[in-house]
From TrEMBL, chains A, B:
NCBIfam families hit by this protein: recR
Pfam family, one: RecR_ZnF
Recorded family membership: Belongs to the RecR family.
Function per UniProt: May play a role in DNA repair. It seems to be involved in an RecBC-independent recombinational process of DNA repair. It may act with RecF and RecO.
Name of the gene this protein is made from: recR
Record key words, sorted: DNA damage, DNA recombination, DNA repair, Metal-binding, Zinc, Zinc-finger
Occurrences of domain Toprim (ranges): 80-175
GO biological process, one term: DNA repair
Organism: Hydrocarboniclastica marina
Protein name: Recombination protein RecR
Database matches in InterPro entries: DNA_Rcmb_RecR, Rcmb_RecR, Rcmb_RecR_Znf, TOPRIM_dom, TOPRIM_RecR
C4-type zinc finger span: 57-72
GO molecular function: DNA binding; zinc ion binding
């Protein structure tokens, strides 16, 4: 005994979403069929449209509906500084802070040999070519401060060692509004190592 | 600064799924566009097909692709006993236990006035008509042993009080394989109250 075949198919299809197992997929399918039919139709249509029209920006690899994304097309941005991030969400967070005005390169992940993700999958060669072509002066490697993010940062830095570009990493320390008592040891070590004179 | 418009639409559409907030929707959208395009297309197609073809069984209200579901069509099942459950998943669990061979009625929820779910939304009138029409001898109200499930059970029992049908609830007690030390007080009270002679 199983559910009706199409319902089984729908539950299977929902399991392709990250973090969704059998029980959550079942719950989602029931809700879509019971009280969320309108939302279900919208999801089916929007998903098809997004899969059809959203590709990668030729220049920075970010998601884009046009061959070049709006940020890469923006002529008012600085061209000699480039920030390397792991995900489109990172670009959005940095843009919302409204401080950085340079170029981006989105790796869409980090090096993870166990998952079959090597330098080619994250576009390291493309990044290197772009740095050389655009005469980038500074490359800020803003991958996440995790083991994988650090590995990826060091790999890219190694590959660019002879290029003459200045390679930087984001400062590590206590976040604004953080409470010392709740901050982990490694972050505190970074904060002490990177301490600055109060006047400066 | 936001994501590309179609990506924003996709994130919004994914939020109609239960338990999915902004960040999970974002993660799902990224994964679908990045490494799960095939799964994404399958989801879009299957969802549309399911929304188009899956309706409710005229007799028991369960999800069905035909006017009557296979269980209601099965002439070999007993017709004088009916089991009322909250969800299609409950029907599946009971069928997998392979003991009960009677009819079903699926409420697709429970009474919840705060969410606007009253007797009409769960089909109580339809259940009453069916009990009368089919001359049901016993109605097992197998709603969940939660506050809402118990309320729903009592409401249905009240409405059927003058009908002459035997109304039963599933036995409550310790589950098979359970350890006494880990079982909550109310379950233990039920287990003691419902104790049986060892020979019987």
């Amino acid at each position: 005994m199983a559910f009706t075949p199409l319902l089984e198919d729908l539950i299977d299809a929902l399991r392709c979403l990250p973090g969704v197992g059998q029980k959550s997929a079942q719950r989602m399918a029931f809700q879509l069929l019971e009280r969320g039919r309108e939302g279900g139709w919208a999801l089916s249509r929007t998903l098809a449209a997004a899969l059809e029209k959203i590709g990668r920006c030729e220049t920075c690899q970010n998601f884009s509906e046009t061959p070049q994304c709006p940020l890469c097309q923006d002529a008012s941005r600085e061209t000699d500084i480039m920030c390397v991030v792991e995900s489109p969400a990172d670009v959005m967070a940095i843009e919302q802070a409204r401080d950085y005005r340079g170029q981006y390169f989105v790796l869409m992940g980090h090096l993870s040999p166990i998952d079959g993700i090597g330098p080619e999958e994250i576009g390291v060669d493309k990044l290197l070519q772009r740095v050389t072509r655009e005469g980038t002066r500074e490359l800020i490697i803003a991958t996440n401060p995790t083991v994988e993010g650090e590995t990826t940062a060091h790999y890219i830095a190694d590959r660019l060692a002879d290029n003459g570009v200045l390679i930087t990493r984001l400062a590590q320390g206590i976040p604004v509004g953080g409470e010392l008592g709740y901050i982990d040891g490694s972050t505190l070590v970074h904060a002490f190592t990177g301490r600055k004179p109060l006047a400066g």
